[in-house]
Specification:
Blueprint (H helix, E strand, L loop, with lengths): L1 H15 L7 H16 L3 E2 L6 H13 L9 E10 L2 H18 L2 H16 L8 H15 L4 E9 L5 E10 H26 L1
Antiparallel strand pairs: 1-3, 2-4, 3-4
Length: about 200
Amino acid sequence: MKKILVVLLAAIVGISAVNAQPTKKQLKSVKAEVAAWTADGWKVAPGNLSMAEQILMQKEYVKKVNNEGEPLYVFGESTAVGQTFKAAQLSVMRGVKMNALEQLDTEITAIIQNDLANKQQSLDKAISVDKVLNRTKEVISNRLPRGIKVVTVYRELKTKNVEVRAMYAYNYDKVNEMIAAAASEALEKEIAEMVKGN
């Protein structure tokens, strides 16, 4: 208990230099989350922020909005298991990117449908939105930068494997720009394949 309070105090001092002072209610919530995560066996890998700092950072990033009141970030979360920390971390990064893109399915589909409506008139056959959507996600996930690490914790399982849990934040506007370019590229490839097949 004493150790959790010391970590929590260190987190407050570290984050208060960058952000506003956390409220008592926030501190109580963070303390409870740290206790729950620790009880579940989660640990912080060397070189990362303390668990309390990561949880406070998560809460701060979720609240950030632009001038129009829209979220500034889209978040990707995932958990993966591997024989080593590095193996699990690689798997979790793929999951984080896909999770972030799943949250943007509506935006991606709208862009694709708009592009399709503009190009469909000059085509003999219909193009599958799902096929272009999957291809677009694949292109974006390969190009999506790492993002801002918000949470990275791990725990050792009874099987001697390592489970890693991560959350990354991606700038919403930059991801939307990437979506538009990737959707256009995926659509052009689909059209080229369709024309080649004729």
